[in-house]
Amino acid sequence: MSQKIFNDIFKGKTVLVTGHTGFIGSWLTLWLKYLGANIIGYSLNPPTDPSLFDILNLDNEITNVTSDIRDKEKLFETVKKYEPEFVFHLAAQSLVRDSYENPLNTFEINVLGTANMLEVLRFSTSVKVALIMTSDKCYDNKISNRPHIEDDPMGGIDPYSASKGAAELITSSYKDSFFNINDHKISISTIRAGNILGGGDWAKDRIIPDSINAIARNHNIKIRNPDSIRPWQYVLEPISGMLWLARKMYSNQKEFNQSWNFGPEIRQKFLTVKEIADYILTKSNSSLKIDFADNSNQPFESKKLMIDSSKAYSNLDWKNIYTIDDALSEIIAWYKTYQNKQEDMKEFSISQIDNYVSKAKQVNMNWTK
């Protein structure tokens, strides 16, 4: 069913995905391949072992360029050689705690890497649409009385958040200096997505893989910040938003050439880290418990972070489809299927894409305009 939604725009098109070996990049690559796109992946080797990219055997189905986003010459050569029409820039250092341990590395990848991508796009003759993925953490998170909207100031206390705010500012500068003048033919938007959960995530210090791994080893789940609140959402939600936005940008270069929040409706209940862990224990029928780690010496992480996606809901006809219960059920099903080795994980993952699209149509998501 998903073939009928986006393939009029992606089928047969060449699409560059940076960071395609990561968790989100692998899901995006799988969906785009399913839609008939010709994928050029540009990334380092998968960042985890196991990795979703390897499990889905995507290496054999795309053109895989193994290189660093900081290598501008290689990136320029790749874009020139393969002439993509669409670019999804996801390559990043994506972990807050790692940004404290390796701040310079974080700034180089997230800031210089984004600047490299924009500089290459500036001289591209093939690219029509580029989406730059930053983070919901790009905001100067000093507002406590409401969720962040797209016009809020950029900032961030930790190096990761600061690097994402800087990536937004650099993108804005490039757009104003080079892409919004002289009838430039590339349309560029930035994506600020809420905390993303899904099957196939094995990154360290993340609530879902930490919980799944603990249960698999018959260990209690250890969490650091039980009361922290995040705009949790299923991995296919922001990916559907990016695909839908890219389609809109392709047909209307100027109107959708903006920054967009992609996250859950602000009216829904936002779960704490502890509530997420409790849910996973309950659904896993486990008698294990939660252990609370001493975080008195841990680096700062914002306790509450929320974003307002009303602009995307009203201007793109896009919205989150799954409740948090739906999302966690799909995620647990993915990991159980993987652990039991009963099904081909690529086919199972595609079935989850089909389930998501079917649910989207049921709730009247307007994907036919």
TrEMBL record:
Does the entry feature the keyword Methyltransferase, yes or no?
no
Enzyme Commission number(s) from the entry: 4.2.1.45
**Which keywords accompany this UniProt record?**
Lyase
Question: Coiled-coil stretches, from where to where?
Answer: none
Q: What class of enzyme is it?
A: lyase
Instruction: Please list the GO terms describing molecular function.
Output: CDP-glucose 4,6-dehydratase activity
What is this protein called in UniProt?
A: CDP-glucose 4,6-dehydratase
The record lists the organism as Marine Group I thaumarchaeote
Instruction: List the top taxonomic levels of the source.
Output: Archaea, Nitrososphaerota, Marine Group I
